[in-house]
Design goal:
The complex is a heterodimer of chains A (about 210) and B (about 10). Chain A is mainly alpha-helical and about 210 residues long. Chain A is about 70% helix and about 0% strand. The N and C termini of chain B lie far apart (about 25 Å). Classes of the chains: A mainly alpha (about 210), B little secondary structure (about 10). Chain A: It comes from Oikopleura dioica (Tunicate).
C-alpha cells in the first residue's frame, strides 16, 4: 500500500459518502445520473465477485472495503430508483447505457490477461468503470448546471482514479508492478474528467456554481 | 497453467 493508493481509496469512499449524504439530506436525486450509479454497482459486483464465490471471513480491510463499495452503491441505486424515484431526472439521464456496457463486455472478451470467467468479469468491470461516469457528465451537459455538492462528488470520484495513476507510477518504479489493462483504462477514465476538473478548479473552488453554456 | 494475475487493488 502506498500513499497514492490510500488517498485514492479514501477519495473514492468520500465520493460515495458525499453522494449518499446529498441524496439522503436533500431527499432528492436531482442532477444525479441513476445510470452512472447502476454502472458503478455493476462494476463493483463484477469486480468483487470473489466475495460471493468463496466467502472468507472479513479478515482484512480489503474485504470490508469491497463490501462497503458494493452495499453503498446498491443502496444509492435503491435511493434513486425507489425511495426518491419521484425526484429522479429520467428525461435528462438519457445516455444509452447499453452503448457503454456492450462495448466494454466485447472488449473484455477480446483484450484480457487470461480468457477465464473471473478474469473477464474483472476486465469488463475495469473497462466499464472507465466510461461509467459518462451518463452523469452527459446529464450535466443536458441540464447545463451541477449542484455544488454534486460537483464535489464528481471531483472526489475523478480524483480517486487520478491518484491511482500516481499509485501505478509508484508501483512500477518501486515494485516493477504493471497492470496494463487497469492503467490504460484508468488513464482514459481520468481524461474524461479533464474538462470537469477545469470547471471545478476555476469555478467551484471560487464559490461559483458550475453552469455550462446550454 | 500460468498464474492468473492477482489484481490486488480495489
Amino acid at each position: 500500500m502506498n500513499i497514492f493508493r490510500l488517498f485514492g481509496d479514501l477519495s473514492h469512499l468520500a465520493a460515495i459518502a458525499i453522494l449518499l449524504l446529498k441524496i439522503w439530506k436533500t431527499r432528492s436525486c436531482a442532477g444525479v445520473s441513476g445510470k452512472t450509479q447502476l454502472l458503478f454497482a455493476v462494476c463493483f459486483i463484477t469486480r468483487y465477485i470473489d466475495l460471493f464465490l468463496h466467502f472468507v471471513s472479513l479478515y482484512n480491510t480489503e474485504k470490508v472495503m469491497k463490501l462497503i463499495y458494493i452495499s453503498a452503491s446498491v443502496f444509492t441505486c435503491y435511493l434513486i430508483f425507489f425511495k426518491f424515484k419521484a425526484t429522479y431526472d429520467g428525461n435528462h439521464d438519457s445516455m444509452r447505457a447499453e452503448f457503454l456496457i456492450v462495448p466494454a463486455a466485447g472488449l473484455a472478451c477480446l483484450i484480457n490477461t487470461k480468457f477465464d470467467a473471473i478474469e473477464i468479469l474483472w476486465t469488463f468491470s475495469i473497462y466499464l468503470e472507465a466510461v461509467a461516469i459518462l451518463p452523469q457528465l452527459f446529464l450535466i451537459s443536458k441540464t447545463g448546471e451541477a449542484e455544488t455538492i454534486t460537483s464535489h462528488y464528481l471531483f472526489a470520484q475523478g480524483s480517486y482514479r487520478a491518484l491511482y495513476i500516481l499509485n501505478w507510477i509508484y508501483r512500477y518504479h518501486y515494485e516493477s508492478h504493471v497492470d496494463t489493462i487497469a492503467i490504460v483504462a484508468g488513464v482514459v477514465q481520468t481524461i474524461l474528467y479533464c474538462d470537469f476538473f477545469y470547471l471545478y478548479i476555476t469555478k467551484v473552488v471560487k464559490g461559483q456554481k458550475i453552469v455550462l453554456p446550454a | 497453467p500460468e498464474p492468473i494475475p492477482d489484481h490486488d487493488e480495489l
